[in-house]
Amino acid sequence: MLQSSRGKQTDLSRDKHRRSGTLLRKEASLNRRKAVITSMCHMDVVAWATRTLIVRKLKGLEDVIDVTVVSPRTSPDGWAFGDVDPFPGADADPLYGAQHIKDIYFRADPNFRGRFTVPVLWDKKTETIVNNESSEIIRIFNTAFNGILSKDKGSLDLYPTDLRAQIDELNEWVYETVNNGVYRAGFAASQQAYEAAVYPLFESLDRLEKILQSKDYLVGDRLTEADVRLFVTIIRFDVAYHGIFKCNIRDIRNGYPAIHLWLRKLYWNIPAFKETCKFDHIKVGYYAHDFINPAKIVPVGPLPNILPL
Ligand SMILES: N[C@@H](CCC(=O)N[C@@H](CS)C(=O)NCC(=O)O)C(=O)O
């Protein structure tokens, strides 16, 4: 977590949502409305935002969901838009000319006192934040626009009913020990806290290695959101977390053949994975932290960033 606002944190006021946390707004209010949603993302660096970009492409939502990319460099005011911090690939806010993501939060809720995180899903029609939680945004993308998508995109289901229990169970420990585990190891302020994150992380990688023996996907025999959620962490593992976050008991390319094959098949065979991944941005983004890398030197390796199939 890169920035925190001071004081008691609040969440965005939420509409009634399902027990699964699927939606903040009713699906019907989003369905059939083209180009009304914008997703503000810190595009190439952060695993949380990239999940939403992958699912946006998998579902063919490029014409429905615009993307505005903020600068990956942190500032005292949080994430800045591209006109304030002209980082290559960062965009100005096309809607309101906002300077920082926090301005968008205050537009949605002037009393907001939480963290000004990305991604943010913004409804251009009602002019408010629909959702700022990536795991929920990918479920919105999975279903909310199916009525206006082509048959094959509309019928692509990354959270199929018959696999939900297995997906939920896997997501839970993968989130705790892997997706979030790398951050807990990387930002640990004591040896004890670091070890409390890094050992469970590698235990979970060992467990994932067994699951992926002779399998292309984590759950069932099809691509699901579980693969997307794990992919964004594993693709960053060797190039970033192994070094900057000291997650270095093993790396993926030498230590986990089944995970490594699963990773490369997704990356090389499915364009949505490759097209949302920019290794140079990932490296610069993670190695730019004052706290853990004051000199901000970005390592050259490992090369190549990802091996061929
Ligand atoms: N639960 C959120 C977490 C998002 C998140 O932590 N984003 C980070 C990117 S590293 C962020 O914007 N941090 C800014 C902050 O904590 O102030 C999600 O998955 O969407």
Automatic annotation (TrEMBL):
What name does the UniProt record give this protein? GST C-terminal domain-containing protein
State the SUPFAM superfamilies in the record: GST C-terminal domain-like
> Pfam families given for it?
GST_C_2, GST_N_2
Which residue intervals define the domain GST C-terminal in the entry? 160-286
Which branch of life, at top level? Eukaryota
